[in-house]
Amino acid sequence: MFKTAAKLATIVLAAALSGCVSDGVRAVDGHVANAVSYVGGPRGEPMNVPLFVASTRRGEGSADDGRARYSLTSIGVPRDHRPGAIERPSFGAADRGRHFTVLAKRGMDEQEFYNEVAAHVSGRVGVSRDILLYVHGFNTGLDEARFRLAQIVADGSFSGVAALFTWNSRGGLFNYESDKEAATVSRDALEKLLLGLAQTPGVGRVHILAHSMGAWLTMETLRGVAIAGHPDLDGRLGEVMLAAPDIDLNVFRQQIARLDPHHVSIFVASNDRALSISSRIAGDRPRLGALDPSKPEDREALDRLGVSVHDITSFSTDFVGHGSFAEAPNVVRQIGAQLTAPREAEADKQAVINLREAGPPAPPPSTKIETEPLPPLAGR
Questions:
Q1: Which pLDDT does position 332 carry in this prediction?
Q2: Rounded to whole angstroms, what are the CA distances from 250 to 62, 70, 253, 302, 304?
Q3: Are 135 and 169 in contact (CB under 8 A)?
Q4: Is residue 379 part of a domain?
Q5: CB 3.0–4.6 Å: which of 40, 139, 178, 236 could bond 18 by disulfide?
Q6: What is the pTM of this model?
Q7: Does 376 map to a domain?
Q8: How far apart are the first and last CA of the chain?
Q9: Closest-CA residue to 158 (of 209, 118, 199, 117)
Q10: How many domains does the chain have?
C-alpha cells in the first residue's frame, strides 16, 4: 500500500512541478533575427529577447557528464503578450505574431560565449550592464525554460543581459530522483558559469532567479563558490531570488551559513501543493518554499535565516500554486523593478518586494517578512 501511495504521490508531483547575434545565426520558424538587443521589429513582428544559454542537457542515451555547451538564442515575444502568460498554440505550428517562438539560435564555444557577453554589455551604463541568470526547476523542457525567461524579461522590463542555465531535466512521471541527480552533476558547470560571467569585462552585477529544484542547485553551487573563496563573486553578486525553493529547511541553513544572507530573497507560499508532496516524499521534512509565515513556528524559523521573505500565497494563479513568481503580473513586475532600480539607490535598496531594510549584516540576522499584497505597478 505504501509503494502504491508513494507512486501516486510521485505522479502528482511530476504533474504539479511541470512547467515549473551575428553571422552564423541559424534561422528557426522561417525567420532570421539579429539577436543583439531586446527590440521589436516592424508592426506585427514579435519583440526580440536574446538569451545566452549554458546547457548541460544531453540527448537520449548520451552520458550525463555535466559539461556545458553554449549558445545564443533569440526568443520572439508576441506584441499582444499578456503579462504572466506564455502564449503557445493549443495545436499545430506556432505563429510568431501570436506565440512565443524561437527566432534564431547559434552555438558557440566557451570563449566565444563570454566574448559575446562582453560585446553585449559594452557601452552600456548602470543596471543595463547587469546579468539576470535563470535556473529552472524539475521536469522543465528546454523550450519551456527559454520561454519562461523571455517572459520574465519582457514582463519585468529588464534592460540588462538575460542568461539561462539549463540542466538535463528529463521530466516525465517518475523522474524526480533522476532530475535531482542531473541537477547535482551540473553544479560544477553552474559554478564555472557564475564565475565566468562575474569576470567578464564590463559586467555590472550578476543576479540569479532560481525556481524549485533549481533553487537547490543554485544554493549548492553558491555554497561551493563561497568555500572556494568567492562568496560574493568577487563583488559582482547581486540579488539571489529563490522562487518556491524545493530545499530542505536544515539543508538551507547550512547553505546560507556560507553566504551573506542580505543577497538572498525567497518567495514562499503555504498553498504550494507541489512542495507539499515533495515534503511527503522526503519523509515529511519541511520545504523552505512551503513555510507559512502566519504560523509562529514557521515565522521563527524564517526569521533566524536572515534572508528577505515574501509570502505570495494570495497570488496563487492555479490549483498547484507553484509558478506564481512568474505568472502573477504584480510579482514579476516587482522583480523587474528591483533589478532595474538605479545603481545610486543601492545604499537604500530593499529586497525584491520591498522587504529588506538596507544596512550591514547584524548578528544574529533578522528577516523581514511581508505578507500584505503587492501594490499594483504602472503598465510597462
A1: 87
A2: 34, 34, 5, 11, 12
A3: no
A4: no
A5: 139
A6: 0.81
A7: no
A8: 52
A9: 209
A10: 1
Mean of pLDDT over the chain: 79
107: which 3 cell numbers?
Answer: 552555438
Residue 369: strand pairing partners = 309
The CATH number linked to 24 is: 3.40.50
pLDDT in tens, 72-82: 999 999 999 99
**Element (H or E) spanning 151, and its range?**
helix 142-155
Asked if residue 377 is part of any domain, the answer here is no
Q: Domain containing 190: what range? A: 2-370
pLDDT higher than 90, residue 26: no
pLDDT at 342: 57
Cell numbers standing for residue 355: 522587504
Per-residue pLDDT reduced to its tens digit, 313-353: 888 766 555 667 888 888 888 788 778 765 444 433 333 33
Q: Which residue has the cell 551604463?
A: 125
Calculate the dihedral angle through the C-alpha atoms of 13, 243, 85, 352, rounding to the nearest 10 degrees. Answer: 170
Instruction: Report the alpha-carbon distance of residue 196 to residue 190 in Å, rounded.
Output: 10
Helix, strand, coil percentages for the chain (3-state, nearest 5):
40, 20, 45
Residues 267 and 288: their CA atoms lie apart, in Å, by 9
Cβ atoms of 147 and 73 closer than 8 Å: no
Query: Is residue 375 in some structural domain?
Result: no
Q: Rounded to whole angstroms, how far apart are CA atoms 267 and 308?
A: 9
Q: How far are the Cα atoms of 190, 301, 328 from residue 310, in angstroms, in the given order?
A: 26, 14, 14
User: CA 117 to CA 7: how far, in whole Å?
Assistant: 44
